[in-house]
Structure formats: C-alpha cells, structure tokens
Write the structure tokens for this entry.
Amino acid sequence: MTNIQQQARAILDQLAFMTFDQCLTIDRHFSQLPARPGIYAIRHCTDGLLYLGKTNDLGTRFNGGHKAFTWAWLDLYHPADVRIAIAALERWGNPALLSELEAILLRATEPPYNVKIPMER
C-alpha cells in the first residue's frame, strides 16, 4: 500500500466513523470550518454520505454556495439533517496529490451527489 493510499484510508476512517453529532452543523457563514486544506463530506443523518470533496481552504469553500446543498434542498432534505464532516490537513504542498487522494476516496465511497468520479491514473 502506498503512502497516499494509507493517507486515504486514514481519512476515510476518520470521516466514516465520525458520528453525525460530531459533524459540523450548517450556519449561514460556515464559521466553524478552519481556513486550511482538507477533505470534506456532506452527510445526512440517515442516508449517510451525500458528497465528498477536497479544498485548499475549508473555511471559504462553502461561502459562495455549494451544489450538494442545492441538491439536498431539491431532494427535500431538512437542513437540520445535513451536516459537514471534515478531515483538515496540516498542510498540503502538492495539489495533484490532493486530487489523487480525493479520487481514491471517491472510488471507495461513490457518494450519490458526486457527478463525476475521477479516473485512476
């Protein structure tokens, strides 16, 4: 198993075993999200993982809107039933590796709101 696969497994475990109550509630300004790179998961209290993504700044990723929340609204999910789980990264110097990490996680989980799953390299 490569180092990136080990990191992906650790992040997947962190996101999967986090209880819904430990996930961040949604507020207008997403003030609980740290301003650092990371992997995030949009989760529903009973349906589980809806969307998984990566970002260079968790704190600003959602301020301009996010398609997963639009789709959750269209699917008539109650806002209190949708939360954000994050795996913040201390630093990430290589964007290509962050993309590869995201691709590994998407292949492992296949969230319904992720439209396109990146192909393995």
